[in-house]
Amino acid sequence: MAIQFQCPQCQSVIQVPDEASGKKGRCPQCEAKVRVPEVNIPPASEATPPQQAAPPSMPQVPMQPPQQPATPPMQQPMAPPPQQPFPQDSTGAPIQQPMPPNTVPGHFDVNATPQQPAMPGPVPPIEQPAFPSTPIEEIPAVKNPIRRRKRRQRRGNLIIPMTFGALLLIGLVYMYQDVNPGLSGEITASALSIEKLEPVIIPKREINASTETIDTVFERLVTDIENLETELMETEISPSDEGIRVEVSIGKQTQFYQVSIASSLGLKHHYDQNINQIASLQEAVLSELSDDFIDDWKSAIDAGEDIELETMIAHRDGLALTALSGPLGFQLQAVVGKQHFRCVYENSDNLYFLLPKNVSKFRIEGRQLPDGSVPFPGRLTAVVKK
Asked: Within 13 Å and on the Cβ side, how many CA atoms surround 178?
């Protein structure tokens, strides 16, 4: 006798000998791993009584393949096809029938260990077996051309938005240049012969320390003015009735250079558009630096010591220059060669920089503020008129 069943993967009819009952093998057509249905083989003594042999030419009705499930065959188990009775001759031996048209010839590998026999009862649907750790055969890895085509298609689909984004960025750059004229190019600067500029007062109301602490520090500053002189500049921080008085003078190797804000349309436009935002940031920074100044002096007074040089330098670079420069100068710096110089003063019309003597031109650009931002996006070349 022989066992016939359909491959759950390709629906081809497979015929194997009775000894393959319950074993695993590979479909000769699609090479999918399948399990042979278990069939109870009666002993020879209980063979069915002889019946009249059917004519050899009796056609066998081919089994109708089951309707394709909605999910892939490997994910939804299929019930085995019903077993067809095989005709027998007068001796009880099976009569060889011609192979159905869709039967796949070939060798069926049944070397796998058969499953444990099922309990008596109706044959349950065949579930997809879990393959052993050591496969019956090595299945070569086959690259999926469809997936590769999808990747190429997805990559091609990104070209359009990337190109559009680049064009949009270029358009924004040109628009920004039109809206903010003069943020690049040349402006005129003047070299001044003056030695110092008007002092600036930091009001007491901007200091968060107690009145007693402020009075203690101011009393010490009356006789011990914080004065720091270098080759770049000289700064003086002293007390006044209104608050902390800050003044800047030229250094031994520098002089003042003046730049008119109104001389550059882009500079003036940037000033008008950002004055409120930058002024708020400058006031917050200046209030914090004023508190640090009072705390440093109070600590030195309590310890009976003089203020240290490193602390004075920090007061100059922080408190003094922040107070002296206005909202526009607070965000600007001059570049001469590889040296950077902060704006040291600003009034309603002009910016002032302390630079080495006899400079013919310098670059004005934005500097990084304490919050990490660089509000000024331009770069101007200041040419010193003679």
From this structure: 6
Whether the Cβ atoms of residue 300 and residue 307 lie closer than 8 Å to each other:
yes
CB atoms within 10 A of CB 39: 14
Q: Which residues pair with 200 in a beta bridge?
A: 246
The whole-angstrom separation of Cα 222 and Cα 63 is 112
| Mean pLDDT over each residue of the chain, to the nearest integer | 77
E strand or H helix that includes residue 239: strand 233-239
Residue type, 127: E
Q: Domain spans of the chain? A: 1-38+80-135, 178-385
pLDDT band for position 149 (50/70/90)? Answer: low
Q: What pLDDT, on a 0 to 100 scale, did the predictor assign at position 370?
A: 85
State which H helix or E strand residue 167 sits in: helix 159-179
pTM of the model: 0.54
pLDDT of 328 strictly over 60 = yes
Distance, CA of 263 to CA of 217 (rounded, Å): 43
Q: Confidence band (pLDDT; 50, 70, 90) for 92?
A: low
Strand 184-191 to 379-385 pairing: parallel
Which H or E run contains 103? Answer: none
pLDDT computed for residue 170 by the predictor: 58
Burial 268-296 (b: 16+ CB within 10 A, else e): bebbeebeeebeebbeebbebbbeebbeb
